[in-house]
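Now read these lines:
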Amino acid sequence: MDMIRNKPFNDIQIGDSASLTRTLSRKDIQLFAIMSGDVNPAHVDEEYANSSQFHHIIAHGMWGGALISTVLGTQLPGPGTIYLKQDFTFLKPVSLGDNLTVTVTVTEKQAHHRVLLDCICVNQLNETVISGQALVKAPAEAIARPRASLPALELKEESSARYQQFMTMAKGMRPLKTCVVHPVDVNSLTGALEAASDSLIEPILVGPKARIEQVAVDNQLDISGIRLVDTPHSHAAAETAVKMVSSGEAEALMKGHLHTDELMHEVLNKDYGLRTGRVMSHIFALDAPSYHKSLFLTDAAINIRPNLAAKKDIIQNAIDLVSALTNTTPKVAILSAVETVEEKIPSTLDATALCKMAERGQITGGLLDGPLAMDNAISSEAAKSKGILSQVAGDADILVAPDLESGNMLFKQMRYLSGIEGAGIVLGARAPIILTSRAGGPATRKASCAMALVFQRKREGQTR
């Protein structure tokens, strides 16, 4: 058992010292900011920090001070120590990746068990970044305690760096003229307005005028200057919006506060809908901070029990989107319950056929493998333990669910148990359809708009 022990006052000698070394990570800065509330942009705002005198993010000064406190409280004098006084001189900034060595040295023993210690922090270049003195009351008796096991912390940002990449790609592109269908709740209306403020969409609000205006008033949202097409109810809003896109009056659809099947019924209308020769499918861009890159899931919202031909289109839609967003050849993991072909599990047979179809050029632009169980798709360790040799296993960009039930349950498990958000759009139609979960917040809706904008403009040949 790992123990921490102190050094009682009578055992302490002048010249005694103790130290620790720590490497500054971005997570250290974020945790210190959360704990202290110090969100000085020099520490947490990359854009501001790059324009500061240091030209990059630096640590909070008291992060080094906290390390000094760690040495005093756990090593010298250790458990039982009472902090009385501390002074610091900050000489140099501490940057991400710096190795900081913190050393405390006893310089004086005083009455009443008081001990004076010099404190110094040096970086990997042996430059002193912090110096000071600490006055503590040392413990009178020896103490040995098991070292406490602290919980592991996973930081979840409101808008992940991966979503921010989509926003960056969309900068400078002409906004999508978008019909926002039935935005009669605060989430859908706020999401549309924030996407408009970031020049991602040019919104046309389609729905009951009185209800939309009331939501704006109740939530202090400014919709002045935004075109509003009045319809009596959600059915009419969906019909009107689809007809506007079909006629070229708008370029995209954005789902508001209505059911997906209600909107898609109009999208699939034979007279004025947005059908193409390809099956339409939904793709979630998952904000999964524990995964090492962007991850996409399809189809969890449109196709209930897709056959082999439908799965071919579902995969091609996802490849086309991810290629546009990442400028890479996506790795596609076709999911099942197992990673071997089993006659009694139809999804394994479909996965095998789809991989062969990709070999024959019937699916292009991606690297496919399957069947793969979920663990093998996203964990190289799991794949290795089962002897799976694959360029996709453990490194998938796209997860292809066997059917809507499994895909929808997988996403909602991620959403409600792990806090993973999903920005979503529907492809395979004549125009992109921005379709997120009704529980998704404005940040997710903005990311969905950015995805749709980048995809549409790249399809048109516009890069900026």
Q: What stands out?
A: Residues 308-326 form the longest helix (19 residues). The two ends are 59 Å apart (CA to CA). The first strand starts at residue 3 and ends at 5. The mean pLDDT is 93.
